[in-house]
Design brief:
CATH class of the largest domain: Alpha Beta
Radius of gyration: 18 Å
Helix content: 25-40%
Mean pLDDT: 91
Strand content: 15-25%
Low-confidence stretches: none
Number of domains: 2
Number of strands: 9
Largest sheet: 9 strands, mixed
Structural class: alpha/beta
Length: about 240
Amino acid sequence: MITHNLRAWEREKAVNMFSEDALQAPEQAIFNMLPLASMSVLDIGIGAGRTTHYLASRCKHYIGVDYSAPMIEAAKQQFPSIALHVADARSLPFQEHFDFILFSFNGIDNMPHEDRITTLNEIKKSLKPGGYFAFSSHNIFGAKKLFHIQWNRKPRRMIESAKRWYKTRTRNPSWSTIITKDNVVINEGAHALNLQQYYIKPKAQIEQLSSCGFTNIRVLDLEGAKLQDPYTSEDNWIYYLCTG
């Protein structure tokens, strides 16, 4: 799974697709909650530097990493004077500890369950006591859309939806099977990268974080608002903010 996804993220198409610098609403909400100016920040899965554009100029100390070398090369072209490295989140190569670690845009979902737990434990070890960890992850309840054709009045979009549905449906178990799982890897037909992505129910994600020693877990929807009942959210992905 990791090798399959890494090959996708190393493609020029992927670098071009994920080169924009716009923040998502929950990212902006989380950044507004934190005293970034006094914080050392480790930004994991930066892609071509989307979050680097915002964080590096606003925090006390910044390091950005990604496991895709072409992504890091693209980021270095934009930010030649910033510390950017090729690194694996399962084994972070830094001796220092950080006030805030970010793993955005569902980057943690590019690995299977066992490696995900390894990564969470590695991040916990890399945080200063009381430090913050934020990340986003695919929501199983939101995956329902992948297994149903999304009707649209425009013929072209209708055809694209049907193609995505067919690719997803033929590469995965049925929706009735997936919805019974706490977590599952879905072979996505959502775009040309054909990624294998980890999806998890919000309740299971909260329990997973707690088992790895994280506390004060908050859950934000895609509008950046705190979810009052995260267990039933149907957002495609959800942001989590917690302390180590």
